Amino acid sequence: MTYLFKLHNFALDVTTKKKSKEMLIENEIKLKTILNNIEDIAFLARSDGTFLTVNNALAKSMGMKKEELIDKSMFDFFPGKIAESRKIMLKRMVKSKKPLKWEDDRKGRFFDNFISPILDDNGNVKHVVAVIKDITNRKKTENLFKTQRDLSIKLNSVKALNNALELFLETVIKISEMDGGGIYIVKEDGSLDLECVYNLPSNFVEFVSHYDPDEPNTKLIMKGNPIYTYHKNVIDHGEDATFKAIGIVPIKHKDKVIACLNIASKTLDNIPLDIVNSVETISSQMASIISKLKAEEKLKESEEKYRILFENNVIGVGISDVKGRIIESNEAMCKITGFNHEEQLKIKIPDTYVNPRDRIELFSILKKDKVVKNFEVKLKNKQGAQYWSNISVKPIKYRDKDAFMTTCYDISDRKHAEDVIKRSHEELEKLVEERTFEVEKTHKEVEVAKDHLQNIIDSTSEIIISFNKDNRVDTWNKQAEYITGYRQKDVIGKHASKLNVFNNPQEIIETFQRIYSGKLPESDRMILKTKNNSKIIIKRSCSIIEDNNRRPIGILSVGKNITNEIEIHRKLLPGNSYLISDKKNDGSLNLFINLTSSSCKGLYITRANPDLIKSIIPPKNITTMFLRNTPSRDFKNIPDFERLIKEIKEFTQRKEKSIVYLDRVDYLISNYSFEQFIKSLYQISDIISGNNSMLLLCLEPSVIDEQQFATIRNELQCLPSQQLEDVHIKDSYYDILKLVYKFNKNNILISFKRISQELSVNNKTISKRMKDLEGKQLILIKKQGNQKTAYVTEKAKTLLQKRALV
């Protein structure tokens, strides 16, 4: 909030110094300019709370014009309790004559409030300057971290898998505010069992409690991809579930699906992106916990089987230490020897031998063979009576100490007991081996996990770079090496400002400062320079790295190379209207965002979820409006065609370079008529052309009939990536496209020479075919050093997909 102190000092200067009328007017203009350029809510008021000057952000939040607020008391705009609390804070500040700072929440949103006094010549508070910042996103992030931490602490004391799943599901329902959910566990045979539920109808639970391995729902989940959609779009979830939006999140451990989290809402049509991120973050945290508890349960089952076998065995089984003292024995051993459990703890095994030399011989065999099997010896029971026993002895580890496990039986019952002894002994060995294997496996998993994270970082197709608090590079993955040509040893440990690979180091450092202070970066792009001085555009996301005490220790930057996409989309021309006929608008929305910039403003018209839009649409260069009748506090609404045409016309006239993205026109067609829609579209196309703007109209073809779709296509142009009607190429050209796409997808550069070698075609022929493909806008050719490399365009990808379907 540095600008707050500047604003405070400036206002103080205006109110306390004697200046000419002209100077006061000039300073008032400057003060208003400062206020209006602050993104957060800011105002200047009298000491009684009456507004003197307010900025645009405050007026917008109140839904009023700025002049309507002047000379009004701020307390008139707050509910009773909040108004009273504000009066108390203002009085406290006036009394102390010192700035005050506090946080509060209003209807689920959090605000950071700062008020500071401005004193007159007599030292009394004359005016108040205030700034109110919305910190909701930061609080949500903090709450997510706290939830993860609390969940980890609680899970440390949980031993049973079911308890862990209940705790996990309860946490997810709490942070996502969903209405219900459940967790499936993948069984060894590949089937799914619903192990844990929350607030689901009993008939619904019965319907979905189990899925066999070959059922469609099982196959969908085992693909491992999260799904967020309207519940009827999924294969089958039973009847009378009364749900709208659902989320299906497979939980993977070592790339294998081991469980699946399902959440559902009765009110939401779509699950917001912030909830999606929170749920997937918590789910990834649970993957190793579920895997560990499943392994422990299996181990406990083995131990229980061992204990049952030990206690109920008809053979005498005992465990003794190296000094010949009995540690543990079963009931059969007590029956054979005549000593109960307490008495056996006191006796010495050598005293039970009739002939002491037999014990010496037994240990001689044990020393030589490491085990004694079927050693026949005469022993004495509690009453001193002698009996023959067949003894087997095996050294074992018992409670981390050397010990001997002894099995024995009365030879008089030998014929009857022989089969039982053999099966029991083999089962005992198997159980011990299973337990040892599980322990060793758990130890190996801990060792492998350490290397696994580094392998993920180096294997990912994204560029991963991390910086410490001193802005020195800590991480530089293989993809960063590959894209830029700079190796890890060239950049690790060096300050960002000292590295040529960053096109604008100062911008990077300033971005980190914004992130540390809780602000969003001004841009999601970063430009890197390769060793041969080529520039690469990276679309990135940044997050703070914290230590165990939750203190910031650095910044993690994860990005994707979008240079080729931008170069391809630059072929779109102003003054044109384009039709995007996709079932999903993800790709076209990314195109729209990439085309907007500080010099090219965007207008996004949609019916999507407002909270989701806030999380994915950058507000700096894009204005968002909604197709709906219901008024909205945060966004402008468009209820009909007349308003739609008016808003587009005003926006494109006001913005010299502008792009309009129109989504969900099916809403307008269904509420009015196709004839009204097409007439309006003609007017909009003329407006776009006249103002030298650009229109991207996204339409899913299945919502209208073919004749209507053809009418729209006659009016609008197709994107270059979707213009396939005039593209006809030979199979040999398809072979080139498939090869280049394969290498592009794996982020491997492919030269003309490599294409010639892979397809066994001479260089001259390959060069000619590549030139033809470039002319059809299917290949983008770039020079890398002395070689030419190839990249498929979006148009080529569409063509390949279409051919694959045919």
Explain this structure.
- With 806 residues, the protein is α+β, with helices and mostly antiparallel strands.
- 45% of the residues lie in helices and 24% in strands.
- The protein has a seven-stranded parallel sheet with strand order 25-24-23-26-27-22-28, with helices on both faces. Strands 8-7-6-11-10-9 form a six-stranded antiparallel sheet, sandwiched between helices.
- The longest helix has 46 residues, at 414-459.
- Mean pLDDT is 81; it is low at 14-19.
Q: Structural class of the helices, strands and pairings?
A: alpha+beta
Helix content: 40-55%
Q: What's the total number of strands?
A: 30
The overall pLDDT, averaged over residues, is: 81
Percentage of β-strand residues: 15-25%
Largest sheet: 7 strands, parallel
User: Which stretches of 5+ consecutive residues score pLDDT under 50?
Assistant: 14-19
Numbering strands along the chain, what is their spatial order in the largest sheet?
25-24-23-26-27-22-28
Can you tell me the overall shape?
globular
Cα-atom Rg, whole angstroms?
A: 37 Å
* Number of separate helices: 28
What distance separates the N and C termini? 59 Å
